[in-house]
Design goal:
Length: about 250
Amino acid sequence: MKLSERHDPPVRVLVVDDQQLVRDGIASLLQVQDSIEVLATAANGQEALEAALHWQPNVILMDIRMPIMDGVLATIQLRRQLPSCHILMLTTFDDDEYIQDALQAGAHGYLLKDIPASDLALAVRAAAQGIYQFDPSIAGKVVSSFVPSTSRKASEMENDPGDLSSPISTGRRANSAFGETSLGDLTKREIEILRFIATGATNREIAECLVISEGTVKNHLSNVFSRLGLRDRTQAVMYARERGLL
């Protein structure tokens, strides 16, 4: 084959869902899409961990509510063990709490199961390139959650936030929600802790890794939130990921 005829390797996908009919259906739909290879399926988070370590997928489609180990806990562990793998939540639940938990855990997007197969394929390919993916019905929630209502000016509300009505809306639309904040406002230690936050690490885990007290970690986090204008850990995770700290 000539060099000009070569194609990029397919995106390697693992499908995780506790309902066999659902996961097999998703796998079948994706398998016939161009540039996508479904490696395996798993019925819960524990199986997902084992399968991911064995198959080394580029993207994992993860249900959020499953027995034995749910999708959030599995995502936290997978982000530590396979940091190069991108995890997309694919679920029927659009609750704010689930969305926040998933993003804080390190998910690279949040999609609902009623998404058309072609759009799901687009989302998988985009996620493999590091682009955040959100279902149009929840994209507004994600963006608004990162803009404190007390700091939003009327003129900012009038600006066009980008078209969120397209089949796939990416988290890169949310960059403007953080304003002009800069990592240069942080100390090296604060940036280091922010990087840990992006992996889903707890305060205790950060303290153990850096050999400092949990109280010191909390003080650093308070400074990070204040200097960057962030409201909580979920915002910190998104900020860190969008600034390439992971």
